UniProtKB/TrEMBL annotation:
Name of the protein in question: Spore maturation protein A
Taxonomic classification: Bacteria, Bacillati, Bacillota, Clostridia, Eubacteriales
Gene this protein is translated from: spmA
InterPro entries for this protein: Gate_dom (IPR011642)
UniProt domain Nucleoside transporter/FeoB GTPase Gate: residue ranges: 42-154
A Pfam family the protein falls into: Gate
UniProt keyword terms in alphabetical order: Membrane, Transmembrane, Transmembrane helix
Organism: Clostridium saccharobutylicum DSM 13864
Transmembrane annotation, as ranges: 37-58, 133-153, 165-187
Amino acid sequence: MINYIWFALVFLGILVGVLSGNGEGISKAIVNSSGSTVTFIIELTGIMCFWCGVMKVAEKSGFTEKLSKILRPILQIIFKEAAKDEKALGAIVMNLTANMMGLSNAATPFGIKAMEEMDRLNHEKGTASNDMALFLVLNAACIQLVPSTIISIRAACNSSNPGIIILPAIVSTATAATVGVICCKILQRYF
C-alpha cells in the first residue's frame, strides 16, 4: 500500500510541475538530488565502516562482555520466566548489549534467538508472553551508549560536532526504556 502512496505523490508532483511550466526545474532538481544522494551515501558508508570497526574493537576488548555482566542482574529482576532460563536470558543480554553498543547487525540474530527461547518457555503458544512483549519494548527503546548511525549521518552532513548527540541520546533512550518497562509492568497486571 505504501508503494502506491509514494508513487501517487511522486507522479502527482511531477504532473503538477510539468503542467505549471516547471518541467525544466523538476529535471534539474532530480539530477542535482541524485548526485548529492550518491555523494552522501558514499560519505556515510565510510563513516559507518569506521564506527563498525570501533564497535568491533569494543567487542574484542571485552567491553561488551563486561556490559553484559552489569545487565544480567537487572534483567533477572525485570523478566519473570526468561530469567529462570539461562539460554533465554543469555540471548536477551547479548541482544541488548549489542544494541547498546550500536551493533545492530550483531543484535538481530540474538533477538531472534531470544524470541525463540522465550517462545519455548511460553505456556500459550501463538500468543506473545509478557516477557516477549517486554523484550520487544526494550529492543525497540534500547539505551544507546554510542549512537553510531546518528553520529555518522551528522558527520556526513558536515556537522561541526557530530558527537555532541551522545549525551542527549543516552538520556532520551534511557528515559524511553524506563517508561517502556514501567508501561509493560503496569499493563501486565491487567492483560
